[in-house]
Amino acid sequence: MHQDLDQFSVTEAVLEQMADTPDARLKLIMESLVKHAHAFARDVDLKPEEWLAGIAFLTQVGQACTPSRQETILLSDTLGFSALVNILAANRQQSKATDPSLLGPFYRAAAPQKQIGDSIAEAADAPELVFYGQVQNGAGHGIPHAEVTVWQTDAHGFYDMQLHGEEKMDHRATFITDANGNFHFRTVRPLGYYIPMDGPVGRMIKAQQRHGCRPAHIHFLIGADGHQELVTSLYLSDDQYIGSDVVFGVSRSLIVTPKADPNSPIPELEAIHYDFMLAPSGSCGAGRVGADPSQLVNV
Amino acid sequence: MHQDLDQFSVTEAVLEQMADTPDARLKLIMESLVKHAHAFARDVDLKPEEWLAGIAFLTQVGQACTPSRQETILLSDTLGFSALVNILAANRQQSKATDPSLLGPFYRAAAPQKQIGDSIAEAADAPELVFYGQVQNGAGHGIPHAEVTVWQTDAHGFYDMQLHGEEKMDHRATFITDANGNFHFRTVRPLGYYIPMDGPVGRMIKAQQRHGCRPAHIHFLIGADGHQELVTSLYLSDDQYIGSDVVFGVSRSLIVTPKADPNSPIPELEAIHYDFMLAPSGSCGAGRVGADPSQLVNV
User: Fold this and answer.
1) What is the pTM of this model?
2) CB distance B59–A296 less than 8 Å?
3) What residues of chain B lie within 8 A of the CB of A10, using their CB?
4) Domain span at residue A133?
5) Which range has the worst mean pLDDT, A4-8, A118-122, B221-225?
């Protein structure tokens, strides 16, 4: 009988009611979640009207999600929670693989397949640049036939789904590396951008007087047989928000600078050169901290 | 510059980015929330696929909310979080007022106004009972013209909104106490019930092998000039789940037993007798841990 519960025994009562959870991992996660959630309420002596504001906020976050918008991931990202999960995953990996970064809310499955050298911009309305690099194994050797998915904003800072919803894909593509593990593509310079500010997470960011910007970056999701999937992004060094990313995704090792480069496959364009190293699949997986929004609603 | 963040410095980076929040209370709450959320992820070494399951779950909780269903409150209730907020509020109150209980997800504003002695059941298809009691001030004197809103399930364990959505109200009413602070009404015996098990919270409850039941109870929301609003429920003593309420709402002082009662205003019916004591409004408010679901979507 759990009657006349006080602020501490109520936590024990919840743990007791969850004690028969058959999945040991679910049990452990929910126990820790309940303990931390209750400790939070006690620490701040949470008021009923504050609780209600939190309920309304979380409800609005869920309801703001659509097949082309994932507000719940955005909330996790802006609280540094996604970055932390990424860091924990990288710590488990124990390899010299490329640092991961956030998948973010703009990943979409089934990006158009393109040929090495193609442009990922349907109609480039800004100076083009070329990206080139090699996908390598842990020994630094190129991996042939690795699958590289890239996505980024257009030159004005918008992702395709912000302009066209689910209708159209642009500034995203999938490439297959050549026999030496190399690939390159043409693109425009991505622009830093505000996260979506018209929803509940945007209201939180404004209430915290945060700038709400991400520095300019290009996303990469790279997979190859026998290797861990790598989810990362490369960040442009001269962006004013390179040190204050609203979603905490930047690592020093992922910062790049476009420049003239005689070794580039298209030397007449400014080039970004970056080689990616994948961890062997035997190691503990990093996994994707993110998902296609269309797979996360109405499930 | 927050680059190459580790699992601890990422927390500091988030707190630093929130440091300019002008609302001191919001700043305190969000700082504590971030610290506890990050500590949770570190404690369980949260995996990306577990994070993703959590994102999908929270998204589904938000999307399950409608004007007649509040799944986010249900989640808070089933994790004992609402009960804890209630306890914290009662602790602040420092009076001998009646213990509060959960407003729950079935409260609705604007219940039909009825006269003392009326039945709250439109068509009672089970033996009737009578509820009678007095609304008292801290000195134990009756408060005239207090407003008492009551709601409960029908004799089969269903709330009106579960049967009729927003279309119709039944088994709920508002009464005004008489010159001595007394009121009474006829009703049917409420039945214990499963919380809604067809949504994401129901799936969680099943995965935890919890029974998912609330013991039979009648809800009361009582207000009077010069007094704190009281939100509480009375629980029927012989319910098999009286000691294992899935939302942790039962207090010993709120348990009642219907019985023959010669002092009842309708002595031929079984009676529940309970007097409520309100705290003066000068004291720190308990507040409503809950809300009308129709006010929490699409806001």
Assistant:
1) 0.88
2) yes
3) 80, 83-84, 87, 248
4) 71-292
5) A4-8
Could you say which residues from 109 to 128 on chain A have a Cβ atom under 8 Å away from some Cβ of chain B?
A: none
- Do residues B98 and B53 share a domain? no
Q: Which of B21, B29, B73 sits opposite A50 (nearest CB)?
A: B29
Q: Is residue A143 part of a domain?
A: yes
SS (H, E, C) chain A: CCCCCCCCHHHHHHHHHCCCCCCHHHHHHHHHHHHHHHHHHHHHCCCHHHHHHHHHHHHHHHHCCECCECHHHHHHHHCCHHHHHHHHHHHHHCCCCCCCCCCCCCCCCCCCECCCCCECCCCCCCCEEEEEEEEECCCCCECCCCEEEEEECCCCCCCHHHHHCCCCCCCEEEEECCCCCEEEEEEECCCCEECCCCCHHHHHHHHCCCCCEECCEEEEEEECCCECCEEEEEEECCCCCCCCCCCCCCCHHHEECCECCCCCCCCCCEEEECCEECCECCCCCCCCCCCCHHHCCCC
Q: Does one domain contain both B86 and B44?
A: no
Residue A110 lies in a domain: yes
What are B181-201's pLDDT values in tens digits?
999 999 999 999 899 899 999
Q: Does B145 touch chain A (CB under 8 A)?
A: no
Task: List beta partners, residue B194.
Answer: B213
User: Does B111 lie in the same domain as B32?
Assistant: no
User: By the CB < 8 Å criterion, does B53 face chain A?
Assistant: no
Tell me the chain B residues in contact with residue A51 when contact means C-beta distances shorter than 8 Å: 76, 81-82, 85, 289
pLDDT of residue B295: 65
Mark whether B206 and B77 lie in a shared domain: yes
Alpha-carbon gap: A33 to the closest alpha carbon of chain B (Å): 6
Q: Are residues B169 and B243 in the same domain?
A: yes
What is the count of structural domains for chain B? 2
Q: Is residue A10 part of a domain?
A: no
| A299–B60 C-beta distance less than 8 A | yes
| Rounded CA separation A92/A90 (Å) | 5
Reported confidence tier of residue A208, pLDDT bands at 50, 70, 90: very high
The predicted model gives B91-106 an average pLDDT of: 83
Residues within 8 A of B (CB atoms), A 269-288 only: 285-288
pLDDT at B298 over 60: no
* pLDDT more than 70, % of chain B: 93
ipTM: 0.88
CB-CB neighbors (< 8 A) of B24 in chain A: none
Q: Are B30 and B134 contained in the same domain?
A: no
A80 touches chain B (CB under 8 A): yes
Is residue B21, in this structure, part of any structural domain at all? yes
Asked if residue B101 lies in contact with residue B231, where contact means CB atoms within 8 angstroms, the answer is: yes
CA distance A33 to B38: 11
Residue B170: how many CB atoms within 10 A of its CB?
Answer: 18
Q: pLDDT at position A2, please? A: 42
Are B234 and B274 in a shared domain? yes
Q: Given CB atoms, is A268 within the 8 Å cutoff of chain B?
A: no
Give the mean pLDDT of chain B.
Answer: 91
Mean pLDDT of B237-247: 95
Q: Note whether B98 and B155 are same-domain residues.
A: yes
CATH of the domain at A160: 2.60.130.10
